Amino acid sequence: MKRFRPYRVNQETRDRYADVHLPVQALIYPYFVVEGMGVKEEIGSMPGVFRYSIDLLTEDVGEALSLGIDKILLFGVVDNAVKDSSGSAGYAPDLLIVRAVRAVKAAFPQVTVITDVCLCEYTDHGHCGLLDPHHDVENDTTLPLLAEMAFRHAEAGADFVAPSSMMDGQIEAIKKRLAAAGLSTPVLAYSAKYASAFYGPFRDAAQSVPGFGDRKSYQMDFRTSGQGLEEIEADIAEGAAWVMVKPAMAYLDIIVRARSRFTETPLVVYQVSGEYSMLKAAAQAGYLDEERTFYESLIAIRRAGADYIITYYAKEYAKLWKE
Ligand code: PBG
């Protein structure tokens, strides 16, 4: 008989044998930025997550930093009135997210600022790319717009640009645009991004619900098993510095496979809005112990192979870590 229970006999031994570690520096905290001053509004479907105007964003980034969180992901949330069919509010000069990047980097140069590059938050139809006359999302005409958006972010001082629209060739288009401007900002590619119902609360947060249809013609079908790896491979070939699998918990198999196949490229995993809201709601109903559940989830994502985890639980994890 092989005896395993000695590994678990008490807390001290369990700690000694635990070989999965998740430092706070491995976490990336997402922020939603809005216009205005003094704005901090809670997102209905994501208790504990807020939309901030730039002044309060900067303040909050300072608080996150004091907890050890030094990487953030920024989403711009603009008024419906400025949205148009081509998402021009996303790449005009002096756009919201550019001002946010500048403010955060000016106040905290040590914070790694990643910006989301996608049209869905800026188009009046809520899709991640331009539409053709048949209302299908058009890949190739979307590329220069994404490239322009990434250029604005990079020029403002973003440390990474993160294209999330799932257009083919977006990494290469962005890399070329940046190079033409003499910028070498690295790209964090949302590579294996599945068309997932778990993004529901995010669309409430970012006010980016598609006006019609869904995102299945560009985001991945979760009934495929190998395509995610091909997407990652293609993004690395196009010049992605870091790659991503998204969502997290239902996709641990993809994470494991990506980790073992692409050993040289940092792997980022996004624990998405729906994963957060599920735990929150269950905890608020008293069905789950929140702290233990999010801790276990994050450790599992790390164990599967994530180098970095984007999570709305970053601050709560960091507080737990401090204790
Ligand atoms: C698109 C984008 C989405 C998310 C990140 N970037 C929404 C979507 O693709 O539908 C989802 C993140 C989350 O659910 O937390 N810009």
Key features of this structure:
binds ligand PBG; alpha/beta; 10-stranded mixed β-sheet; 323 residues; 12 strands
List strands and helices in order, with pairings.
Blueprint: H1 11-17, E1 27-34, E2 40-43, E3 46-53, H2 54-66, E4 71-76, H3 96-107, E5 112-117, E6 130-131, E7 137-138, H4 139-156, E8 160-163, H5 170-180, E9 188-193, H6 200-205, H7 227-238, E10 242-246, H8 252-261, E11 267-271, H9 273-284, H10 290-304, E12 308-311, H11 314-322
The structure holds ligand PBG.
Describe the protein.
There is one protein chain. The strands form two sheets. Strands 1, 2, 3, 4, 5, 8, 9, 10, 11 and 12 form a ten-stranded mixed beta sheet that branches. 39% of the residues lie in helices and 19% in strands. The chain starts with 10 loop residues before the first helix and ends with a helix. By secondary structure, the protein is α/β, with parallel strands linked by helices. The structure holds ligand PBG. Ligand PBG is lined by residues 116, 118, 120-121, 164, 199, 202-203, 215, 272-273.
